Amino acid sequence: MDSWIWWLLAAAALGIPLVLTAMPEFAMFAVGALAAAGAAGLGAGVVLQAVTFLVVSVALVAFVRPIAYRQLQRGPQIKMGIEALQGATAVVAETVDGEGGRIKLNGEIWSARALHPDQVYQPGQQVDVVEIQGATALVV
């Protein structure tokens, strides 16, 4: 059997743990095996095939892996929960001052308190949510 077939079998064998474990490093080694299969198909010797496998695999692990992990570490760009409410605009439902009050925020009634204790907001006024403390929105 030709050596390029062995490299293709190695690439397929490296694809199995990739699917089972979802570790992208196996895909990088599989691409290295495919590169070695291409070198073997072009008539390269065994040493050059092995060097091709090593160079391509190590290059992918060294350069592509850090980029991929950085993308995974960023997390979702969508704000959810309390983070999504900060900066939102609300309408005052009951007078809001330093002691408390009620606002309508995203269709729900929330307890609210003025960020600055001397400020008073009347019903119908629009306010901005600065922070959420428990179940109370601090507004300006």
Concise structural overview:
With 140 residues, this protein is α+β, with helices and mostly antiparallel strands. It has 4 helices and 5 strands; from the N terminus they run ααααβββββ.
Task: Describe the protein in words.
The protein is α+β, with helices and mostly antiparallel strands and 140 residues long. It has helices spanning 3-21, 24-41, 46-74, 82-85, and strands at 89-94, 102-105, 108-114, 126-133, 136-139. Helix 2 runs antiparallel to helix 3 (46-74). The mean pLDDT is 92.
Oligomer: single chain
The averaged pLDDT comes out at 92
Broad structural category: alpha+beta
Report the major sheet.
Answer: 5 strands, mixed, barrel
**Which runs of at least 5 residues are low in confidence (pLDDT < 50)?**
none
User: What is the percentage of strand-forming residues?
Assistant: 15-25%
Lateral arrangement of strands in the main beta sheet: 1-2-3-5-4
Using DSSP, what is the number of strands? 5
Keywords:
140 residues; 21% strand; 50% helix; rod-shaped; 5-stranded mixed beta barrel; alpha+beta; 5 strands
Write the layout of secondary structure elements.
Blueprint (H helix, E strand, L loop, with lengths): L2 H19 L2 H18 L4 H29 L7 H4 L3 E6 L7 E4 L2 E7 L11 E8 L2 E4 L1
Parallel strand pairs: 3-5
Antiparallel strand pairs: 1-2, 1-4, 2-3, 4-5
Helix pairs in contact: 1-2, 2-3
